[in-house]
Design goal:
Elements (H helix, E strand, L loop, with lengths): L4 H20 L6 E2 L3 E9 L6 H10 L3 E3 L22 E2 L2 E12 L9 E10 L4 E11 L5 E5 L3 E3 L8 E9 L4 E11 L5 E5 L10 E3 L19 E2 L9 H18 L2
Antiparallel strand pairs: 1-14, 2-3, 2-10, 4-5, 5-6, 6-10, 7-8, 7-9, 7-11, 11-12, 11-13
Helix pairs in contact: 1-3
């Protein structure tokens, strides 16, 4: 069946407009939802990994995508733990010691996007099975989760079972002085056991950190994560009929004028 000229023009106009809408759809987002992103690895300190091995592990590590950094308010323990220093121990498993290392500051501004935390956990038993969750607080603000270690066996009060969590901050960590809090969990049951933070150990207080985007001499040492673009509106998308409305209007006018 042959179409008359007005109908052919209408079809051609619609096809062109649909193609333009499909090609430009990634650019019409009204809102980009910010997310914190980082990568972390954990390993036993006795493994004595060199930088090349750790670089490769970080490159292959799955990105940790989190809610935007919470900077409002204050830490719940700020008015409690500040009054005394704890032992870092609760019950039969406790944190004996922790230390931090600042690793990479590409633009030499004194703020680092890569750092590590070493944790020595002791137990009254011959062995216990644990893992750690780590949190960052920007200059006294709320704690923000950022990493989880692997599961590790610890042995009495041995120092050889110390494990390390090394992290690269990729996005949404502005330059500032961050405190670190460590929570220890039973790896068999998931039960919380102990915590340890800046009031127990000065090495977890006031670390000068920033993400790799602020570290503006970024040379590929970190691995930024592309976050999802969300189109604002009902249901998170824009109606295709709304986008096609101009095309329908133009085509209808052409069809009418051609008669």
């Amino acid at each position: 069946m042959l179409f008359n000229k007005p109908t052919t023009q209408l079809i051609a106009s619609l096809a062109i407009w649909i193609a333009l809408v499909l090609l430009s759809s990634p650019l019409i987002a009204e809102e980009v939802v910010d997310r914190r992103t980082s990568k972390s690895i954990s390993f036993s300190q006795s493994d004595d990994l060199d930088k090349t091995a750790k670089d490769e592990q970080l490159k292959q590590a799955e990105a940790n995508v989190m809610e935007p950094l919470n900077k409002e308010g204050f830490r719940t323990e700020s008015t409690i733990k500040a009054l005394h220093t704890g032992s870092g121990g609760y019950g039969d498993v406790f944190i004996y010691d922790a230390s931090t290392e600042l690793i990479s500051d590409l633009n030499y501004d004194g703020f680092y996007h890569r750092f590590s935390v070493a944790i020595d956990v002791d137990t009254v038993y011959d062995t216990s099975y644990v893992y750690a969750k780590l949190y960052l607080s920007l200059e006294g603000g709320p704690w923000n989760y950022y990493a989880t270690s692997g599961n590790y066996h610890i042995y009495g009060d041995s120092e050889s079972d110390t494990f390390v969590i090394e992290t690269e901050l990729a996005d949404d960590f502005p330059p500032g002085y961050y405190d670190i809090k460590i929570d220890i969990y039973n790896a068999d049951t998931g039960q919380w056991i102990a915590d340890y933070g800046p009031y127990e150990d000065g090495s977890l207080r006031g670390l000068p950190l920033e993400d790799s985007y602020y570290d503006d001499s970024y040379d590929g040492g970190t691995y930024p994560i592309e976050t999802e673009i969300v189109v604002a509106g009902h249901g998170g998308s824009v109606s295709w009929w709304f986008l096609l409305l101009p095309a329908l209007t133009i085509a209808a006018r052409r069809c009418f004028n051609a008669r």
